[in-house]
Structure formats: structure tokens, C-alpha cells
Amino acid sequence: MNDPIAFFITIANYGTWLPGDERGWVEYQRGWKLPCRPLELEALARMSEEACILNSGQRELVESQIAETCEHREWILHAQNCRSNHLHAVIGAFETAPKKVRQDLKAWCTRRLKRETNSGRENWWAERGSIRWVFTEEELERVIEYVNDAQDRKHLEIKPDQ
Fold it and tell me: Domain Transposase IS200-like: where (predicted)?
């Protein structure tokens, strides 16, 4: 199999997509699951702080930090979009493990948010996040379009997979 040309990374904010969620959810290493209200209530009860909803200024900080991290690591940033409850990034990070890319994005964005927002928040991101491998130029165009323009169009809906 060929090496990927990019990774399509999605990271939900802390507490915004819990196990059991009414939209469906992803169980780690087991895949997509149907909604389960009791499980969602249990996850909600275990949260240590409120769900993280980013305002426009915080979203700008996240996007700035992603660009800075990619530049520093010499990764190719094809597209990014930080929303109020999740972020997407399409990154060419050759010879870097995709989990390391996701981990670095979360860590550096967390540092920047803590430093520049004067927030006492400890949890900004969900524990993991989705990583999809992009192998062709056609796939790359499709995920870039989704990230930049089409997240709300039904025919391009992409569910998190990890």
C-alpha cells in the first residue's frame, strides 16, 4: 500500500461528543455505535468541568497555533477549520506518525489557549480524535472542500472513525 499524502484530523472539544451521544459515537478500537442515553448520562456525570465551547477569539488562536506548529514541524497544512465544538485539520506530515501529529496539535493549542485566554480550564479537547489517512489527490480535494466549505452538506458528511 502507498504512503498517505495527508492526514485528515478531527478533534472534538472536551465534553461535546460523549459516549452514548444521540448522534451516535465512536468506541475506541471498536468503531461506530448507536446512541445510548444511559451511557451518555454516565459520561456526563464523570466530567470534571463543563463542555468546552470555543468563542471566535479562541478559535482564531487555535488556527494560528496549528499553522505555527505545522511551520515549525515542517508539515504541510492543506486546510484547517476550528469550530466552536471541534476542529479539523488536513496535514501532510511525512515521516511523522499520525497520532504524534494529533498529539502535538492538541498539546500546542492547549498551551496557547491557557496562556492567552486567562482561563482556569484544564480540559480543552476530547481524549483522542479521528485520524483518516488520505492517499489520493481526489481524496485530498474532497477533505479540503469539506473542511473549508462543506461541513454541513449532507452528501459530504464525514463521521469520526476513531
Answer: 53-147
